[in-house]
Amino acid sequence: MPAIGNKDFAMQTIKVTSKSAMLLAFVAFCCTAMSSGVYFLTKDKIAQAMQEQQRALLLQVIPQDYFTNDLTQDCYVPKIDALQNVAIQKICTAKKDGKITAYAFESVAHDGYSGDIRILVGMKPDGEVLGVRITEHHETPGLGDKIETRISNWILSFDHQVISQEKAAEWAVKKDGGKFDQFAGATITPRAVVNQVKRAALAMLDNLPKEKE
Fold first, then answer.
1. DSSP characters for 99-136?
2. CA 12, 14, 20, 22 torsion: positive or negative?
3. Quick check: is 213 in a domain?
4. Torsion sign, CA atoms 196, 101, 147, 46
5. Distance separating alpha carbons of residues 12 and 112, to the nearest angstrom
6. Which of 28, 66, 114, 148 yields a CA-CA distance of 20 to 30 A from 210?
7. Residue 61's closest CA among 200, 211, 167?
8. Which residues are annotated as modified residue FMN phosphoryl threonine in the UniProt record (predicted)?
9. Which residues, in sequence order, are bridge partners of residue 191?
10. What's the pLDDT tens digit per position in 65-92?
11. 81: in domain
12. Angle, CA of 129, 119 and 196, to the nearest 5°
């Protein structure tokens, strides 16, 4: 049999390479199409699940009997400096019979032992705190993580406490002369949470009327 020349060999190599490239492109197209299909089929369910999780979390800081509106849809990002300066990132408004009954606001304490601590606070317009929850943290397990409800009831000590400029000194851990307990061997974490709730709550009381005008 005659030997295959270099030109013929090169042509066959090009054909094989082209077929392989086309096959890979087809597989990639199919995978992309399947991924897109799965995304479009599930995106509404994912969005609904996320909204339900957010609603459940908001209900932990503002009881249902305080509002008739959809809290997850009545939220905004504050634009005034006084609220941004205390790291308030989002505010949700609770309304009943057209009247504002409470606010839920997200804030961040930057002075946690192991970094940022994200906090959700529910508060009435008169300064009564309805509830506080930690939504994210990196504090030490067995020490700082007592700010979570699954670990301890410490965070519930904020319930129905009233904040005001006159009572601001009380809003500290007992080691700093306040009324909130600290953790044995871990004062930094509760101090960061108490101080941030105080800073954010006072800023809300001072600036919400201006923010809503």
1. EEEEEEEEEEEEEETTEEEEEEEEE-TTSBEEEEEEEE
2. negative
3. no
4. negative
5. 66
6. 66
7. 200
8. 187
9. none
10. 999 999 999 999 998 898 999 999 999 9
11. yes
12. 75
